[in-house]
Write a structure and sequence with these properties.
Elements (H helix, E strand, L loop, with lengths): L1 H4 L8 H4 L6 E4 L5 H11 L4 E6 L1 H10 L11 E4 L5 E14 L2 E13 L8 H10 L5 E7 L1 H9 L3 E2 L6 E5 L2 H12 L7 H11 L17 E2 L2 H11 L5 E3 L3 H11 L8 E7 L5 E8 L5 E9 L4 H14 L4 E5 L5 H6 L3 E3 L3 E6 L5 H5 L23
Parallel strand pairs: 5-6, 13-14
Antiparallel strand pairs: 1-3, 3-4, 4-5, 4-10, 6-16, 7-16, 8-14, 8-15, 9-11, 11-12, 12-13
Helix pairs in contact: 3-4, 7-8, 9-10
């Protein structure tokens, strides 16, 4: 049954047009938000916290107030024969330029189903309907193993170079304590001992994790100055978002709401002559693992930008830094003692074979603000 649901072909909304005893896929409407929110709360219980923002408000904003919202690329729900919503996939329109020419794309994520319904093909039908949409390029940077298999059966490809996360330890004892405290609150009593260990380790010249504080040369900037820098730094990518100032400001604003990681910090780095060397944005708080959304660097300036990021995170008290691997920075990150891990996969489905060339060549800007990591559904807290 699952293999049949994953067979390529069909129109995205065929299932909605024909009544079925098993239900079908249809576009998500604003009236579906309460049902989608209930499904989200049941699926992602770890993101719920007293004092968080109402999930319905966030879903309305991301699904129906998106600056690139396209009625031909709606998010989708699976509705039973009684009309009740039991499955959902978020479809976020993505306007891309490939060598200057526009490309229609969409990011698919937050795939979830009500497991109590007992319908094993809901997720597969939602994914197939999304991939059969009008877009030329479909992608997701958050596919788990089950989703990855479904994508590949439907003709998608896993892009290994974009499917890793990097982690750079700053304070090893502090990182161990932060991980332990998430499971056992009483472990926080060990904080003074971890602090002493890391203080001593930082003063050992042979310590391979030492970070030179003198590399902290960048400047904190507001969202508007960051956007000006990103618009310039994104131009060299062959495949990149077709941002303008208003749309990019909207994405940065959403990325600022990641309470699990800390406040958003925007930095611009300049070279010795005052020229733009690079920029980055990340969420960081003392004693936490900083979360990097994007790093941008001008040619031959990557080292200056990454070194500034590490020094800035150390100054702000982070115990480690993590982010999505961008292929153009992979070698540098390895040389800076980062380790690579796998958390989720980048999967891509394209109707045009030429769109794979910039992705395979590391010339595509398709993660972070260009993917789905900007969403407050990732790293945000809700009620």
């Amino acid at each position: 049954m699952l293999d049949a649901a994953l067979a390529p072909g069909g129109n995205a909304l065929d299932a909605a047009a024909t009544p079925s005893a098993a239900g079908g896929v249809r576009p998500c409407t604003i009236e579906d938000i309460p049902a989608v929110a209930r499904l989200f709360r049941a699926t992602f219980t770890d993101r719920l916290k007293a004092g968080g923002r109402p999930l319905e408000v966030l879903l309305r904003r991301e699904l129906f107030e998106h600056p690139w919202r396209d009625p031909d690329l709606p998010s989708l729900v699976f509705a039973g024969p009684d009309g009740a919503v039991s499955g959902f996939i978020a479809v976020r329109p993505l306007r891309l330029l490939f060598d200057g020419a526009p490309v229609s794309a969409a990011v698919g994520g937050t795939l979830m189903v009500d497991k109590s319904i007992g319908n094993p093909v809901m997720g597969a039908r939602l994914l197939r309907s999304y991939l059969n949409g009008v877009q030329d390029l479909s992608l997701s940077e958050s596919a788990n193993e089950i989703s990855q298999v479904m994508w590949e059966k439907l003709g998608g490809r896993t892009e290994a170079a974009y499917s890793m996360e990097w982690l750079r330890v700053i304070k090893p004892a502090g990182l161990a304590l932060a991980s332990l405290t998430r499971r056992f609150r009483m472990a926080a009593l060990l904080r003074p001992f971890a602090g002493v260990f890391d203080w001593c380790a930082a003063r050992v010249r042979a310590n391979p994790l030492r970070i030179d504080a003198t590399f902290d040369e960048g400047s904190d900037v507001d969202a508007e100055d960051l956007v000006d820098a990103l618009l310039a730094l994104s131009l060299p990518y062959r495949l990149r978002p077709d941002w303008d100032r208003d749309s990019l400001l909207w994405f940065v604003a959403q990325a600022s709401e990641k309470e699990r990681y800390g406040p958003l910090v925007c930095r611009v780095v300049r070279d010795r002559k005052g020229g733009l060397a690079g920029a980055y944005l990340y969420c960081v708080r003392p004693g936490g693992v900083a979360f990097v959304l994007d790093i941008f660097a001008a040619p031959k300036s990557a080292e200056r930008v990454v070194d500034d990021l590490f020094a800035d995170a150390k100054r702000r008290g982070a115990v480690a830094i993590r982010g999505r691997v961008q292929p153009e920075f992979a070698d540098l990150l390895l040389r800076r003692r980062a380790v690579f891990l796998h958390a989720s996969s980048m999967v891509v489905h394209a109707r045009r074979g030429d769109l794979f060339a910039p992705i395979h060549g590391g010339e595509a800007l398709i993660t972070g603000l260009a993917g789905e990591s900007w969403s407050a559904l990732i790293g945000g807290l809700f009620i």
